Amino acid sequence: MNATANVSDVLNLDGLLSPGELELRGTVRAFVDGRIRPNIAQWYEKAHFPVELVREMGALGLLGMHLDGYGCPGRSAVEYGIAAMELEAGDSGLRTFVSVQGSLSMSAIHKWGSEEQKNRYLPGMAKGEIIGCFGLTEPTAGSDPSNMATVARRDGDGWVLTGAKRWIGLASIAHVAVIWARADDGVRGFLVPTDTPGFTATPIEPKLSMRASIQCEINLDGVRLPADALLPGAKGLRGPFSCLNEARYGIIWGAMGAARDSYEAALAYSLERLQFDKPLAAYQITQQKLVNMLLEIQKGTLLAIHTGRMKDAGTLEPVQISVGKLNNCREAIKICRDARAILGGNGITLDYSPLRHANNLESVRTYEGTDEVHTLILGSHITGIPAFR
């Protein structure tokens, strides 16, 4: 290892990655450095999602990258995780786009759609020509989707959807929405073109987090769909939960990208900022903060790599995803806050990334299962006693 690598990778975790994985990381990192970092402060301040990057991400093979066939890149779980880490080092909002498009919308079609649906949507979605969204969460059903109020009733050969969804990423710019609704035979998934009469998506504003991203409220006012809008393979909550686990997996990696970027910003600042005639980095308290950050980033990254290898081997269980999502989000947000503290007053400006990352992570630790939900999942696994109610 060289001295530069030691700063962020004292355990040489890069040695656990293949040459191909390191090459992919370099490609995505260059994209982040060239297209996201120079602009993200302005995008965040103006609450602007750079839709112009969507097709560029498609051209890089970042959309549905872990899916096979139908024009999808067919990369490994570890490669997808590496990309998520680098994107979130730029901004959580940009990583979230890739997650909503690939891990949620495209995964739902890939896992549960008909061949006709897969061929109709997936190639265009992989290129970024078609944007998707994933409508599960509702105004009164966030952590408990079993109580969803959106209903789908049969109407001749077709369906009519009525209800509302909330906190749905990309909905106002999406071309197709994966909507989950309660039918007579249980929860079912539907592909809803967003220009269908009765479908309305309204961005949620103003926000203090995920400002360079789009989250919406969806209203479904008697949305009429043909029979072939139904995802035939999905019945019950297993359908949406399988997609949520794909997104949760990406967060394990992404959160460590935000943490690493914040640590590196604080380290660089502490080496240059003089207080009482010497650099901040020369003080014991500052070094303790930096060491604690580095330890958790190294452990969290190792957890992400191990989880990814299990996923690629087909042995990863949902409870193991909860370990990573809970731990890495919880530690990442603390790292970002401690990094902001090292930056002092300058840290509250958009000249530096840690507070922006910390604000974004308030959303990341909430969506795809809150800290409390993942704690209960693990508690149930440990004790054999579900404590959700």
UniProtKB/TrEMBL annotation:
Ranges for domain Acyl-CoA dehydrogenase/oxidase C-terminal: 236-381
Domain of life per record: Bacteria
Sample GO molecular function, one term: glutaryl-CoA dehydrogenase activity
InterPro entries, per the entry: Acyl-CoA_Oxase/DH_mid-dom, Acyl-CoA_Oxase/DH_mid-dom_sf, AcylCo_DH-like_C, AcylCo_DH/oxidase_C, AcylCoA_DH/ox_N, AcylCoA_DH/ox_N_sf, AcylCoA_DH/oxidase_NM_dom_sf, Glutaryl-CoA_DH_mitochondrial
Annotated Acyl-CoA dehydrogenase/oxidase N-terminal domain residues: 21-129
Pfam families (UniProt xref): Acyl-CoA_dh_1 (PF00441), Acyl-CoA_dh_M (PF02770), Acyl-CoA_dh_N (PF02771)
Cofactors (names): FAD
Acyl-CoA oxidase/dehydrogenase middle domain: residues covered: 133-223
One Gene Ontology term from the biological process aspect of the record: fatty-acyl-CoA biosynthetic process
Xref: SUPFAM superfamilies: Acyl-CoA dehydrogenase C-terminal domain-like (SSF47203), Acyl-CoA dehydrogenase NM domain-like (SSF56645)
Keywords: FAD, Flavoprotein, Oxidoreductase, Transit peptide
Family: Belongs to the acyl-CoA dehydrogenase family.
Protein name: Acyl-CoA dehydrogenase
